Amino acid sequence: MSDLFAKINCTYCQEEINGLRVQCCVCIEFDICLQCFANGAEIGPHRNDHAYKFVDHGAVSIFGGRGNWTGREELQLLDAMELYGFENWDLVSRHIETRTPEEAKDEYISRYLEGNIGKATWAEVANRRPIITDQTPEDRGPLSPLITARLPPLDVTPEEARQLGYMMHRDDYDREFDMAAEQLVTSLQLNVHEDSNTEIALKLAQVDMYTRRLRERARRKRVVRDYQLVAKFFSGQRKEVKKPLTKEQRELRDRMRVFSQFLTAGEHDRLIASIERERELRFRISELLRYRSLGLTTQEEAIHYEQHATFQRQQQLRQNKAARVNRKTHVNRSHRLYQFAFHLGQQWLCSINSGKPIQKRVSRLVKMEIILFINSLLFHDTLNIATVSF
């Protein structure tokens, strides 16, 4: 490929050969142009009857058809794709020097992806693609990516950050949790040759204590950042109005709160949402089973059944309400009759004691109702009111 892009000069006339040239098969590195070959040029050991072959300098089109790309341009295209990769068509175009980015993209896709070359190569490569499995062991150290992964920045103002001692650009705090943790290892020195096994074990225990404190520090920082506790503390007045929770939802969140220390905020919310979704599905399944037990097989039948059941419940409620109203009316009427009979009885007793007749006249219908009511409820066993005359 390097010979393709090298400048070749005619051995006889010393002119640069840009297109097709003739190469002698007998002489070493002997190339002449077509004009000198046609004139039968001879120089040095070369004779015009030596065997020869035609060599293309990359100016002849390989595929033909649209674009008329030369072999030199095709090789430059493949070389640029190997250097810059797919989609970097501007760099590929500058590498080819004679084609625009659109032409380079169209030629590569049409020839080497969707053309015969692409169909003959990419399908086989896709079938032989290896299955790559990550064998890296999981890092559970105090500074592992699982603990120190970058979280969303704190939603605080510069004044609030100053109060917290929070440095926005460093994404860290001036004062960390358990600032005395480093004192465990500041003066620690390990000498394998001079220290005894007990001293080495004690020093390793100190390192383990320091590691545990680092892990706790990172865990607390992650919890604060993950649940946005600082932002919630400062944004008491900026709380969004959310839909109030039902009693069942509040009870579920209270029971599941103990698991929040093992999950992130997003995982905990997804867990609660999944449990609520499970409840909804269970309730819906029970409804469908009830419909099946009633002989309902289609959605239209279920809708008609629910409408009919709702109508019956409304009818029952209206009947119960009417019965309560009638009962109340009967009680009020009986109470009024009782009061009237009581006052009338008082007047009758007064008339007996004083010897004066009752002045108030009562209609015959009211008189009969009073007599029947008193006989049935009040004085049936002690006094025969039916003989009383008004």
Automatic annotation (TrEMBL):
Domain Myb-like: 66-112
Record-level GO BP terms: chromatin remodeling; regulation of transcription by RNA polymerase II
Primary location class: nucleus
GO cellular component, one term: nucleus
Domain ZZ-type: residue ranges: 5-60
PROSITE patterns noted in UniProt: MYB_LIKE, SANT, ZF_ZZ_1, ZF_ZZ_2
The keyword Metal-binding is annotated on this UniProt entry: yes
Keywords from the named record: Metal-binding, Nucleus, Transcription, Transcription regulation, Zinc, Zinc-finger
Source species, domain of life: Eukaryota
Cellular compartments annotated: Nucleus
UniProt-recorded Gene Ontology molecular function terms: chromatin binding; transcription coactivator activity; zinc ion binding
Domain SANT: 64-116
SUPFAM superfamilies: Homeodomain-like, RING/U-box
CDD domains linked: SANT, ZZ_ADA2
Coiled-coil ranges from the UniProt annotation: none
Nucleus as UniProt keyword: yes
Protein name (Swiss-Prot/TrEMBL): Transcriptional adapter
